Structure formats: C-alpha cells, structure tokens
Amino acid sequence: MPSLLKNGERMDLATGIHLNTHTLAANSVSSK
C-alpha cells in the first residue's frame, strides 16, 4: 500500500512507528 507508506513518511517518526505497529497487528489478526 504505497499511499500508507507515503502518509507515514509525512508524519512524525513516533506517529509513523505507532501506525506501522497498529497496521502489523491488524494484518496479524486478519491473517488468523
């Protein structure tokens, strides 16, 4: 998802990491 990556780059580092963690967690739940 290029759009999400670009949005993350524009955000603060801490916010970007938080979103990345949240996305990874959501993906893990979806994988189950």
Structural notes for this entry:
- There is one protein chain.
- It contains two helices and no strands.
- The protein is rod-shaped and about 30 Å long.
- The two termini are 20 Å apart.
- The protein has helices spanning 2-10, 13-31.
- By secondary structure, the chain is an all-alpha fold.
Order of helices and strands: HH
Stretches with pLDDT under 50, minimum 5 residues:
none
- Give the CA-based shape: rod-shaped
Give the rounded overall mean pLDDT. Answer: 72
What's the N-to-C terminus distance? 20 Å
Structure annotation, total helices = 2
- Based on DSSP secondary structure assignment, what is the total number of beta strands? 0
List keywords for this structure.
single chain; 32 residues; mainly alpha; rod-shaped
